[in-house]
Amino acid sequence: MATTDTLAQDTAATENPVAGIDQTKGDFSYDVSYAFDAGTGLNEDTVRYISSVKKEAPWILEFRLKALAKFRSMPMPTHWATKDLENIDFDKIRYYLSQGQKPKRTWDEVPDDIKKTFERLGIPEQERKFLAGVEAQFDSEAAYSNIKDIVAKQGVIFVNSTEGLREHPELFKKFFGKVIPTGDNKFAALNSAVFSGGSFIYVPKGVKVAQPLQAYFRINAENFGQFERTLIIADEGAEVTYMEGCTAPKFSTSTLHSAVVELVALKGAKIQYITVQNWANNVFNLVTKRGVAHEEAEIKWIDCNIGSRLTMKYPGVVLKGRKARGEVISIALANDGQHQDTGAKMIHAADETTSNIVAKSISVGQGRSTYRGVVHIPKHLKGCKNNTECDALLINTNSRTDTYPAITVRGDRNYVQHEASVSKVNEEMIFYMQQRGLTEGQAMSLAVNGFINDLARQFPMEYSVELKRLIDLEMEGSVG
Amino acid sequence: MPSLVIQDLHVAIGEKEIVKGLSLTIKSGEVHAIMGPNGTGKSTLSKAIAGHPDYTITAGDVLLDGTSILAQEADERARAGLFLAFQYPSEIPGVSIANFLRAAVQARMAEGEELDATAYYKRLYAKMDMLKIDRKFTSRSVNEGFSGGEKKRCEILQMAMLEPKFALMDETDSGLDIDALRIVSEGVNTLRGPDLGVLMITHYQRLLNYIVPDYVHVMWDGRIVKSGDKSLALELEAKGYDWVKKELALA
Ligand SMILES: Nc1ncnc2c1ncn2[C@@H]1O[C@H](COP(=O)(O)OP(=O)(O)OP(=O)(O)O)[C@@H](O)[C@H]1O
Ligand SMILES: [Mg+2]
Residue A475: its pLDDT value, please? Predict the structure, then answer.
């Protein structure tokens, strides 16, 4: 059995790697002329500018302005989070850059200066091979967005946030900003003020989208902030898998990526949200992701964080309906100079809800990993279950790992299990592998891939192959 | 003819000298057995030759086909044809034997050359059959949860797959049951030939009945103090190390 798997992987590795997330390939940028530029720094005019170029309804501008006020009034969360947040200079960031607000439906229509970036990242090719739809965001707006005809015919809506709010307000307004309120945290407020791009997806009742929908987020400009906003609604019994990939060129100045992603799985629906990000190590990646799972619905976050200077991200599921299920599978790799502050939140709000968290972190050199988890099961509920597992792998003694699991489980009719481990890649193991002919980098990379193997196996093939390749690159770069 | 030449080798761990001037030449096609009491430096010798970073070579040299390998990293030495069957093989969680060996085979191929997966599995299964290893093992993590004997068998499987020029086998027989000892020995005998030189560390004459050595050396306190043919092993078994000790005292 397992050997056929390995054979299959072999073929996959040569025929169908997910392109574009490899940072060595992603580290380039082309000169692009932007027709729309909100300038540098953030004030009410910036927000008004963004709203006006998008020709938004008045309620959205109002929503944005309120969020801006909220953002300004909220302190940096440095009382619990890293002081490195203070190094973000909001006055030096460019909040909106685009060539236009309407994404093209065919690659031929995408302007050359932008198209060549996505071609170099291999996105059009991937789309042809195995995706149901693609949105390719370039700085603030989607340059391309398309969905296969057969999927569109089933009534699936896959558009960017501007279009979603304009064309389908009755559908999206109901949930927009409801899963993650503006004041949830400072960066959610910032996103709510200046959001642009991201996907709005609606899958009608009972429709199961067989192939994944994919979004690709590309930062091209220096000193830029990308603030996409995604809302996915799976109606009763619907199923959808969404994958996102992200890269940015490596600039000497810092770049900000601060997204908000809201998921709504109605009764019996299933949403799987997969992220494989490989940011350049000047990116502050501060993302809020949360889903609400209604009765018997299931939300699964698969979150792979590689790269960035600082990532703070704790995907969550609010288990709102009876028998809802939530899962977070998280892999974080912190190399030298990087801090992966990741985790998960499971808020149980109905009987017989179950949640599962498996978080694996790898710290290399001066890299730092932090796990933060929240599991909340109030006293009046019964038959709830949570399983939390966090494992850390340290490669070389300077690495640092912290675990902050906050599990508040009240009442005796619920069941919780928590396991944590910290292990080190030991020298004898590396020597053993080197003795078989592998370089130190290959040996490290194999050890790391082994550590996450049980998780990577749950990913769609294309992504597990890509993840392995990213780890290989990271590990080979990490030894002298 | 290919050779592994150990010249007046001195090996220290930290400040402590363990191997104290050891010389030995192994030619391709030969099997040398090293016997010696516990703690005498046999494993230290084999790991130092393989390039373990904790072991400092303070004097002497090791030549593979006439070229010193001391400046090479462990993996370069391995790819140059040196194999160490470990006394205590490491566990590699989450990495299957099939994937591990595939990476090792791939590491020996020229850049850009693609591994033929079908041919690879065919070869792997053939070697496993030879060593009577259940095919289920291909998907098990390397050495994880293996019994002592299974680990040793897996070492020989790796050796069979990687086809080294010189193999250092450190107590491959220890931990093997009677049947396994025979199977593993037969496996090694199949690999034996004009293109392979073997340095076999063992405590037991019994192994040498199966894998008959061309030479037997006795190691004592970091040196080879006595060499002979296979009859030396029998003599050693009959008389014990006290006999060697007495001879040393007389010399
Ligand atoms: N990493 C180490 N640190 C300190 N001392 C060590 C280390 N490795 C080996 N030694 C010491 O070096 C000496 C030789 O050890 P070695 O393992 O080479 O012996 P050996 O001949 O293989 O013994 P055995 O027959 O028991 O396997 C022993 O005294 C041992 O304690
Ligand atoms: Mg030993």
Answer: 82
C-alpha of residue B163 to centroid of ligand 2, in Å: 23
Nearest CA in chain B to A3: B139
Please, are residues A117 and A162 in contact by the beta-carbon 8 Å criterion? no
Angle between the B148-162 and B117-130 helix axes, to the nearest 10 degrees? 130
Structure tokens at A459: 């990913």
- Classify the complex by whether its ipTM is higher than 0.95, answering yes or no: yes
Give residue A2's pLDDT.
33
A283: confidence class by pLDDT, cuts 50, 70, 90 = very high
- Please say if the pLDDT value at position A58 is more than 70: yes
| Paired tokens of A82 | 């890293």
Please report the pLDDT score of residue B57 as a whole number: 97
Other beta carbons less than 10 A from residue A446's beta carbon: 27
Residue A85, token pair as written in the block: 């947040």
* A252 HSE (CA, 13 A, CB side): 0
Measured between beta carbons, the chain B residues lying within 8 angstroms of A447 are: 92, 95
| A193 CB burial (10 A radius; 0-12, 13-18, 19+) | buried
Q: Does the beta carbon of B137 lie under 8 angstroms from any beta carbon of chain A?
A: no
Is the predicted pLDDT of residue A398 greater than 70, yes or no? no
Question: What's the rounded Cα separation, in Å, for the pair B107 and B104?
Answer: 5
Residue type, A43: N
Residue identified by tokens 């799987």 is: A272
pLDDT-derived band at A281, boundaries 50, 70, 90: confident
10 Å CB burial of residue A476 (0-12, 13-18, 19+) is middle
Pairing state between β B141-142 and A157-160: unpaired
Taking CA atoms, A106 is separated from A36, A147, A148, A363, in Å, by 22, 10, 11, 42
Of B90, B98, B104, nearest to A437 by CB-CB distance is B104
Task: Inspect the interface and report whether the beta carbons of B90 and A11 lie closer than 8 Å.
Answer: no
Burial class (CB within 10 angstroms; exposed 0-12, middle 13-18, buried 19+) of A41: middle
pLDDT over threshold 80, residue A408: no
| φ, ψ at A202 (rounded to 5°) | -130, 125
In this structure, which residues have their CB less than 5 angstroms from ion ligand 2?
A: B 42-43, 87
**Mutation choice for B interface testing from A360, A362, A423, A434 by most B CBs within 10 A:** A434
Average pLDDT over residues B98-106: 95
pLDDT band at A6 (very low <50, low <70, confident <90, very high): very low
Cβ atoms A318, A290 nearer than 8 A:
yes
Q: For atom 4 of ligand 1, which residue has the closest CA?
A: B13
Q: Is the pLDDT of residue A381 over 90?
A: yes
Tokens of B5: 């030449």
Question: Which residue in B49, B52, B76, B92 has the most chain A C-beta atoms within 10 A of its own C-beta, making it the best mutation to test that interface?
Answer: B92
Cβ within 8 Å, pair A436-B138: no
pLDDT higher at A339 or A469:
A339
